Fold:
Amino acid sequence: MGKLDGKVAIVTGSTSGMGRDTAYLFAKEGAKVVVTGRNEKRAKEVVDKIKAAGGEAMYVIADASEATYAQTIFDKTMEAYGTIDVLMNNAGMLSLAQFATITEKEFMDDIYINVTSALMLSQKVAPVMQAKGGGHIINVASIVGWEAHWGFVAYVTSKHAMVGLTKAMANELAPTIHVNGICPGGIKTAMLDSCGGEAVFQPLINATALKRLGEGTEIAKVALFLATDDSSFIDGQLIHVDGGVDI
Ligand SMILES: NC(=O)c1ccc[n+]([C@@H]2O[C@H](COP(=O)([O-])OP(=O)(O)OC[C@H]3O[C@@H](n4cnc5c(N)ncnc54)[C@H](OP(=O)(O)O)[C@@H]3O)[C@@H](O)[C@H]2O)c1
Structure:
């Protein structure tokens, strides 16, 4: 018996990284999983792997920078599975642009993709959860949603906003829908590689009690906890999954 038997879970940004690991775990626990991203080849690979293991999944190709993103994911999910129990807003991008030179467009792209798209999709999904009397929304923020460890001005701003959005949504959607977030530390994914990989993150590793980077599967396990009644008395919280940064 799986912890998500009979549930439908959307995991955005699940064509790679921690979203993909979460999609695999949710499917293993019995959920019908909706995999999203822009890369159709990788989306199909994730769905094929879930199905090969005996699970159920589908993919929706949608770009979080576009206004049609939320409606597309919502419509295709409802058409295929008829309901939604869990939404993990995980899709995200990281602009390396710094304060002095970042353009308005670069800044707004980070904000839109990392935060606005999560709000718009949650807005579509929440009424379904309210009508059925329950649901779990999990927002992926970051440790830089609390402290600005680097000068990635747009990314840091967007993740601070994701922390605020999580708390505001929890207030507005309680008691029916539980809204919580995860603040990952340095996790070994394509995003981390795009910043220069493990060597660039040595100062962060040094500041981490466990003296290592994390795995996507270590985020997935916390996402599963937040997606089930195992976390029944937790709401509006951001769980740091960072190996103990600056404790
Ligand atoms: N890795 C870390 O150390 C770390 C730390 C803190 C927080 N995070 C956060 O964790 C989340 C997942 O990142 P990750 O580390 O797993 O990186 P990743 O492997 O690069 O995954 C990012 C995911 O987001 C999707 N995505 C990116 N831009 C998108 C867009 N415009 N429209 C739709 N989907 C988009 C990607 O799908 P496609 O490529 O198919 O579009 C991919 O599935 C992000 O929100 C990130 O900010 C990561």
